[in-house]
Prior knowledge:
Blueprint: H1 8-23, H2 27-40, H3 46-59, H4 62-69, E1 81-85, H5 95-103, E2 107-111, H6 118-130, E3 138-140, E4 150-154, H7 157-166, E5 172-175, E6 179-183, H8 190-201, E7 211-217, H9 223-228, H10 239-254, E8 260-261, E9 266-269, E10 279-285, H11 288-297, E11 302-306, H12 333-338
Parallel strand pairs: 1-2, 1-4, 2-3, 4-5, 6-7, 6-11, 7-10, 9-10
Antiparallel strand pairs: 8-9
Amino acid sequence: MAEKFMTVQERIAAFEKLGNYIGAIDAITFKELSLTARNENSWFTEDSVRQAFSGIVKYLNGSALAQWTAGYSFENKSPKRVAVITAGNIPLVGFHDLLAVLVSGNKLIIRPSSKDTALMKYVISKLVEIEPRFESFIEFTEQQLRDFDAVIATGSDNSSRYFDYYFKKYPHIIRKNRSSCAILSGFESEEELTTLAADVFTYFGLGCRNVSKLFVPVEYDFAKLFESWQSYEKVLLHHKYHNNYDYQKSILLINRDEFLDNGFILLQENKKLVSPISVLYYESYNDWNDLIQKLNSQQDKIQCVVGNVSQASVRIGEAQSPGLDDYADQINTLKFLSSLG
């Protein structure tokens, strides 16, 4: 199909319609989509897909999109071919990159993770159905990337080394492993502790915005925390999570390591930031300034700091509800795309 010009306003209008469509998907279609997604990636439950769709609907608000793009000039520019390599840890994790590339008027060459192809293809097919002019701006590939002007790639620390080498001659954003943590003061209400559970357990802890470590005051009492999290015991119904829980518990027992156990998550004192699935690390602090200094020294490994203290970047319970300008790795994607000329 021949390329046809679209204004920023027209692109925004198309994405807003996409958001309206996703928000109104009927139960049968949603169940079929969820099943297809789960066949690709067994971590993708109906709840996970529903959470991902809710996040997309939040993004695709016309006024929010207009405000997000207002500081940039994307008109009258020759579109660049931007390759996007997505991860597959949570459903539609690459959607924000897709949105940024297309709303800025550039062409998208997307190489989705083999673990998250069906949902991405479905969303794109609906976008093209809503606005056919996008068809010539989107290309899927599962092969080696060719004929591109810039790259946005997300992967592990190991894959990022390959990306850095292979794409070093091109303008690029290369994202590595990140995780999130929470600061607890010890004065959190029962409601706050309950909502913290969503930051920990949503997507089974697989996302970079999932809290994988707690910083707590010395002699913190975890009993209230465990009591507030009881409604999330259902995570054990997922066989992979349950297997992880059993495995991690057996390792801790064999090694005679100290840990806390509420029956579906294990808490272990550990200075590392990234914990295994079904394990949550914690570290005690008694000096506030030392804690902040420690967090500042690890900024390149932390996606967000959750808490109801002034030093936190995200309020408790909101880690899985990022806004359009909550950029992965704190790298402004729109600013990068606008710099391509």
